[in-house]
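Need tokens for this chain, all 212 residues.
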Amino acid sequence: MKSTRTERRWPVLLAVLLWVWVIWTACLPAPAAAQSRPGATITQMRLEQADDGVYLGAAVQFELPSLVEEVLDKGIAIYFVAEAELFQERWYWTDRKVAQVQRHMRLAYQPLTRRWRLNVSPLPITGAVGMGISLNQNFDTLSDALDAIKRIGRLRLGDVAEIGDEPLHQVTFRFRLDTSQLPRPFQIGVVGLADWNISAERTARLALEKQR
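Here are the structure tokens for all 212 residues:
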């Protein structure tokens, strides 16, 4: 009798274990490929010394999500910010920030000319303040405009005397899609949307190279 009861319990026990396994696997995080989100990668950083100062160059790689492209096609401008900080390392205390610089970029589609306009400014491009001191570039395609945004060149960090003559310099570079400069209704609508989370940060100890 005991063996018969035991045999009857086995199918029930297996069924319970199967359900536990199903629930457990459903709660597991999705594979890395399924969790991929729009983002950016900093592929290059270079510190150069020129006659008029020290400059940082960087390269960023990212893909523009289709949702962001749709916003651009409607005539709404989007904004990117590149920021660099240079620190002096101190063994006896926290590192001292020696220099900080920002670059603001505004990308917009011009329906009348069917071209893409990129404004570049050291200040946030809001109204006439940033637009008045911005560098304007026009491109035939969105791809060409994005290539210009991804190549961050000649971010001036300061004079050589201000930077110092250490063999290596600690530099932090950040890049992001800045939703705070979008029109107010869009700022509310994009909160929490992964498509608008394009950002990257990298810290490296760089040697100061002579500009060729």
